[in-house]
Write a structure and sequence with these properties.
Layout lengths: L1 E4 H6 L1 H9 L4 E5 L2 E6 L13 H4 L8 H9 L4
Length: 76
């Protein structure tokens, strides 16, 4: 892990971005104190939820399907 000041980060952003893409992690310092960390994002998993409308909490006595249908009236 490398450290870099905000000023250096602004001046050399393209190089920082290139190194991060290669797996490097930076701690960004603001007046000598850690303020942020720049790293590659983690992998995102896609939630598969086939029955989401059937298991949703009813809103005001209506089902989620009714709420969506009402909201979309005239637009679809």
């Amino acid at each position: 892990m490398k450290t870099i000041s905000i000023r250096e980060m602004k001046a050399h952003w393209s190089e920082v971005e290139r190194q991060v893409a290669l797996g490097e992690t930076f701690t960004v310092l603001n007046r000598g104190r850690p303020a942020a960390m720049i790293t590659l994002p983690g992998t995102r998993s896609v939630l598969k939820w086939d029955d989401h409308l059937e298991t949703a909490v009813p809103v005001g006595g209506r089902t989620a399907e009714d709420v969506v249908r009402t909201d979309r009236e005239g637009r679809w």
